[in-house]
Amino acid sequence: MEALIECPADREVQSVIKFLNAQSIALIEIHRQLCRVYGPNVMSKQMVHRWCRQFSAGRQSVHDEKRSGRPSIITDDLVELVRERITENHHVTVTELSSHVPQISGSLLHEIVTEHLLFRKFCARWVPKQLTPEHKTKCMEERLEKELADVRSLLTENESELRRLHKENSKTFAVAVIIMFFAFLMYGIYIMVTNPVNSV
């Protein structure tokens, strides 16, 4: 059994239809071959027929043509307003943005942020998708400063902890030495008492 191509590339199926249609292969056979290679849900017979009819009529492009429809309500002023809000607070969410810009929906706000401004969410912060060298340098400097501050605080905490342990250990060591001294002294006395020296 042949392996299916489960995720065809963008416009790959239309290109195959165009190729097979140019070879004058019947519509039903084109659909059968597509289903055999891409799976049964690749495209309906009606859509294959539509594409074949368009290619036979002289269409060259495999991409969908622009359609007239409802005009976009996204304006340059709106995009700039959203940019200002994000630069004021990089941690702002789309929901919070919608309270600042109530005239448009959350999905349009998300479209403005991700497609027009080319921002993406990174660690709960909006950052440009393509960082400039200045951005990269600034981010690295901030990161290094934070890391150095963390190391300094860790060293300070550890230093004070080491001093405390040293004091405790010094006392413990002194007590241990005294106990050992008395233990040896008692052992010596015990030996002298139990083994008296025979006088000659």
From TrEMBL:
It comes from Cryptotermes secundus. Residues 141-168 form a coiled coil. Pfam families: CCDC-167, HTH_48. Keywords: Coiled coil, Membrane, Transmembrane, Transmembrane helix. The chain crosses the membrane at residues 173-193. Residues 29-58 form the Mos1 transposase HTH domain. InterPro entries: CC167, Mos1_HTH, Transposase-MT_Hybrid. This is Mos1 transposase HTH domain-containing protein. It comes from the Eukaryota.
